[in-house]
Specification:
487 residues, Immunoglobulin-like, 4 domains, 9-stranded mixed sheet, 1 helix, 45% strand, elongated
Length: 487
């Protein structure tokens, strides 16, 4: 009999499910968008090394669940390469980041290969160019200074023998304390060869910014005269124009004028954050004891509101221009995801691939009351979340009003004498996907003639989901209506 009732009870939920945007006759269908955030050409040196491609995927209407209206946030990106010396490192890849490695180039010649990222019929390509080591021939006289150097109008008018040598420092080549005027032009060259150089895009560089390098591009310039520390990363993809004494970790990324971009700073090089549902997130971050800050391109820097060390998973309030770094009690052997809820200026630091313990404010409520007076559904929707709860009262109801009570998640015949949520009949849909509920509780109160519903449950992958709704519940097409409380 219980199985028959569950089938009967499920029918009205289909009738009250929320509409997807495509049900609106004036709605323009959203098509998927796959775009590169990294350069389409990556130039690397001849040694073996590890590299990362950054991308952004926005799914279209085909990824919207027709029952809940929530977009699936998983990332079914496929990746291939046409070069045997390039290896896709899937175990080190995450949403928005594809890791790959290259083998040492012992061929004696420059070589190139392609990496293709695909989603459905959409794809983007990155060309990887790997330099070859040039062996010196017997009797050859060395020309210029070996290794990477800076040469330009300030080095005896482009004399390669007067070039400024760069030293290797923690993954970079660096020339420190270089005196440059706004009228100087310069470039980075290897082994004294003007043909093997890294250049720019012709625009003068701002102080303390990083820029993509270009092979055979325009000469480099600075916007403001002064002394600089100049860096290029060992992947040869980025150069840095830093105030004397500053490191590449302090460099800002150039963004389009007026672009609202968020970054995590203080954990090495700045990490650009990406949108994930109602949050902005930086994934797979290695923390340190000094903590970090958040920077926005339009509104500036944000730090912790309180000078305290939080626990992993805690809500951390942030303030503009705060002096305190954001610190948590971290495990150096683990990496973390950093989430921001921008509208409430709150940060969460959680272990990688976990979700923040955030109280969602739901705006839509649907329910159905059935013959027998004990079983009903609550279907709540809100800012990036949908919760469906299959509720069973221990006693009947009066006048179609759900009583003030607390339900616990339970299963089947072990629930006699309690108000419970049927575990196998309840689920949560959010950025983690559609997941069943395994534990937790739901509390219903009557406040000012409305239902006040608080959800605090755990799903199958041990992610805690909290939601709150206040208002009425939509009428059922079958059975008894759910009435508003009279209090």
């Amino acid at each position: 009999m219980k199985q028959f009732l569950k089938l009967l009870f499920a029918l009205p939920l289909l009738l009250v499910a929320c509409n997807t945007p495509s049900d609106d006759p004036g709605y323009t269908p959203k098509v998927p968008k796959l775009e590169l955030l990294s350069e389409s050409l990556m130039q690397v040196d001849g040694e073996a090394g590890d590299y990362t491609i950054l991308y952004n995927l926005e799914k279209g209407d085909e990824a919207i669940d027709s029952e809940t209206g929530i977009t699936d946030k998983t990332s079914p990106i496929t990746s291939t390469t046409d070069a045997s010396w390039i290896t896709i490192e899937r175990d080190r890849s995450f949403y928005g980041e594809l890791a790959f490695s290259v083998a040492k180039n012992e061929s004696g010649e420059k070589r190139s290969g392609k990496i293709t990222l695909s989603y459905r019929i959409y794809s983007v390509e990155v060309t990887v160019e790997q330099a070859a080591a040039e062996a010196q021939k017997p009797g050859d006289e060395p020309t210029g200074i070996k290794g990477w150097t800076v040469v330009g109008t300030m080095t005896n008018n482009w004399d390669v023998n007067s070039a400024i040598a760069m030293e290797e420092i923690d993954g970079y080549y660096a020339a420190r304390g270089v005196e440059l005027s706004s009228s100087d032009s310069f470039k980075f060259i290897l082994d004294g060869s003007m043909q093997d150089c890294l250049c720019g895009n012709g625009q003068p560089a701002e102080r303390d910014y990083k820029y993509p390098t270009q092979k055979y591009g325009s000469d480099l310039r600075v916007k403001e005269s002064g002394r600089y520390d100049l860096y290029i990363n060992k992947a040869l993809t980025t150069y840095y124009v830093m105030s004397e004494g500053k490191s590449p970790a302090e460099a800002h990324e150039v963004v389009a004028p007026g672009e609202d971009a968020w970054y995590v700073s203080g954990v090495g090089e700045e990490i650009r954050m990406h949108n994930a549902g109602v949050f902005v997130v930086a994934s797979n971050v290695a923390l340190d004891a000094d903590g970090f800050k958040i920077r926005n391109t339009l509104t500036g820097s944000y730090g912790a509101a309180a000078d305290a060390e939080a626990e992993v998973g805690d809500e951390i309030a942030i303030l503009a221009d705060a002096e305190n770094n954001i610190k948590v009690k971290y495990d150096a052997s683990k990496k973390y995801d950093i989430y921001i809820k921008v509208d409430i200026l709150t940060v969460w630091v959680v272990e990688s691939r976990q979700l923040p313990n955030y109280l969602y404010e739901c705006t839509g409520g649907e329910g159905a009351w059935f013959d027998g007076g004990k079983n009903f559904y609550i279907h709540l929707t809100g800012d990036g979340i949908a919760v469906t709860l299959d509720c069973m009262l221990n006693t009947g109801v009066s006048d179609g009003i759900i009583p003030e009570t607390t339900f616990v998640v339970a299963y089947g015949d072990d629930c006699e004498g309690i108000n419970y949520i049927i575990g196998e009949g309840s689920q949560v849909v959010n950025t983690d996907g559609k997941r069943g509920v395994v534990s937790g509780e739901v509390t219903i109160k009557h406040i000012d003639g409305e239902y006040d519903i608080t959800v605090d449950v755990v799903n199958l992958v041990q992610h805690r989901v909290r939601a709150h709704y206040r208002g009425g519940l939509v009428k059922s097409a079958i059975g008894y209506d759910i009435a508003l409380p009279n209090k």
